Each structure stands twice: as C-alpha cells, then as structure tokens.
Amino acid sequence: MSLNLQSHTISQRKSLKLKGTKTSVTKNQILISSGIVSLDAVLDGGIPIGTVALVEEENYGRNADLITKHFIAEGVVSDHSILIADVERKPEATANDLPKPIQEDSFQQTDIVAEDFKIAWRYSQNPIYDSKPYHTSISFGHTFDMSAKIPVNELQNIRYWPADKSQGTSYAELLEHINTIITKGGFSTKIPVEKRNVLRITISNLFSPIWDSNDMNVVTFLYKLRILVRSSYATCLITTQAHVIDDVTKCRIEHFVDSVLIFKPMELSSCADYNGKLIIGKLASFNTFLYEPLSVDWATKLTRKKLCIEVVFIFYYLISSGVL
Predict the structure, then answer these.
(1) CB of 19 within 8 A of CB of 78?
(2) What's the CA gap between 307 and 130, in Å, rounded?
(3) Given phi > 0 = left and psi -120 to 50 = alpha, else beta, which region is 159?
(4) Under 8 Å between Cβ of 88 and 111
(5) What whole-number distance in Å separates Cα of residue 135 and Cα of residue 167?
(6) Distances, alpha carbon 37 to alpha carbons 139, 255, 314, in Å
(7) How far apart are CA 295 and CA 123, in angstroms?
(8) Rounded distance, CA 181 to CA 306, Å?
(9) How many CB atoms lie within 10 A of CB 313?
(10) 235-271 residue pLDDT tens
C-alpha cells in the first residue's frame, strides 16, 4: 500500500492545511494562535510556525505564566503536539492548570460607547482590542475561561521535560530531546511523513539558576534551537524573569529569538484597571516585511476569567491624573 508522504521545505509550508493554523496573506507564513486572541491581533494575526518567541517578565508578574498556559491550552483544543519544559516545577503541574475553552456560537464586536475625550477627538477613532476574536478568523483561536480547568483526561499528545528525576536539567539535554521529538515525531520539513501536525514547545523560567549550564550557555542554546525550529513545523514559547539576566546577556538573548514581548508593572496609579504594561521588543520578520503595530502603548487587563491586551492612551491618563 502506497502512502502519500509529505516532505516540504519552508517555502512550501504555506500550501498545507494544518488544523489550528491559518495562512497570513501579508506575511506569507503559517500562523498559530497564542491562545489569547487580543494578543494575536497585536502580533498581526498570530505566531508564525518555525519561530521562537521570548516573553520577559519583571517583578515576578503572572503574565508570562498565564500566556504559557493559554498557549498550551490552544494547542490542546487544536490537537497539536505539545512539549512542556520546566526545571523549577513539575511540568505536569502546568498541564493540570490549563484554562478551559469557552464554547460560543458566534462572536460579535463589542459595543463601544462614544465618549467625549478631553485630549483630542481622534482618539475615539482608535481600535480597542479585547479578548473576543473578531479581529481574526472565527475558526482561528479560542477564548478561554481561567476560572475553569481542562479535565486531565482530555490532555492528549503532551510530553514533559524533564520526565523524571533521572533526567538532567542542562540546555544540551533539552536541545537533544527537542531534536529527537522533531525528527522522530515527523515535525521536520526534511523528513516525509503521512500526515503533518504542529508541535508547540514551551520552555519556562529560562536562565533560572536551577539550569545546569556547564556544557552549554544559554546563548548557544538559543542559537541552535532557532536553527532547529526554523526547519520544522514547530513553534517555541520561552519565558524568563528579566531581573535574573544582566543587560549584556539580555541583548544577546533577544538577538537569537524571533519575537520578544516584555511585561512590566503599570506604574501609573490612574491606570489601576490594568495589571501590567506590554512592550513589543521584537517581532518575527523573516521572509517578509516588518509588521508595524497600530500602537506602542499596550496593557494587560486581568480578571477572574480572562487575560486580554488593550490599547492604553498614556498621555490621556497623565492628563487625567494631573501629572501633566
């Protein structure tokens, strides 16, 4: 019996129809959802396959951890293969705390009440981003409820690293483990397989002191990881605490990833509705022109059920609080 095997280069991946993905017309790339639709809108539709994204968190915030869980939960709903790597806590604990998807028949754009702005009338024409996926295709991306959890029996195709105490915690061992999964799991673009799927990789708390970096430093690890992911149907999401990295190393780390999202605490008391500020340090731009976001002032709003990204008019808040 003959098999219709698929072996594609990076330039041919766009013609594939993979579950839980969409093709960007402007980028000419295959995108997957981050699990937070408002964040997908900020990233021009989603995260490209074959890229490495870095999320930096300051002052022990929760945003990086929540984004990781949404990223994994989106993979579970989309039937993607998943690898969870974490050296500070058991990776199974992350999988057991995934937000549950909300089943909605349709999504409608939020009704926006017109307000008289004190700064300028043109602010009323700016778009407002919330957690409902009307900015992207309805079939792409899901909305999740953080107050409910995905049942453990529904977790499929999830691998954990380290799987047990016998495994080490070095960058070299993790890189070899990822290489084995990509090669033997049929995620490499160079190896023909009967059916393609997407691999989602999460690496939490990179550069933590618990990592064994005697055989390979973190910069070398990221350099080799990006090469490995670039020639595969995989996307890697990495989180780290910004305060444990010096400025020189941080610049080198950001150079060897494709996207950088930086979360900082919101310092303005007048912005009490938001729990953090989002700074876009870098966006994936290979094989395409660099995407320019509609705004540079973003903030995270966290409620009991959801996390969403919204536009914040800092100048307006400075005026209203009497700073200016």
Answers:
(1) yes
(2) 9
(3) beta
(4) no
(5) 43
(6) 11, 26, 23
(7) 12
(8) 32
(9) 16
(10) 999 999 988 888 898 999 999 999 999 998 877 655 6
- Helix axis angle, 218-230 to 247-255, nearest 10°: 10
User: Could you give the C-alpha distances from 312 to 119, 128, 133, 273, in angstroms and in order?
Assistant: 13, 9, 19, 11
Which pLDDT band holds residue 136 (cuts at 50, 70, 90)? very low
Rounded-to-integer distance, Cα 51 and Cα 196, Å: 17
- Express each pLDDT in 43-100 by its tens digit: 888 999 999 999 999 877 889 999 999 999 999 999 999 999 999 999 999 999 999 9
Q: Are the CB atoms for 47 and 11 separated by under 8 Å?
A: no
Residue 64: φ, ψ to 5°: -60, -45
- Token pair listed for 181: 């999964």
3-state secondary structure of 307: strand
Quick: pLDDT tens for 147-171.
999 999 989 889 999 988 777 889 9
- The CATH code that applies to domain 22-320 is 3.40.50.300
CA dihedral 273, 68, 210, 174 (to 10 degrees): -160
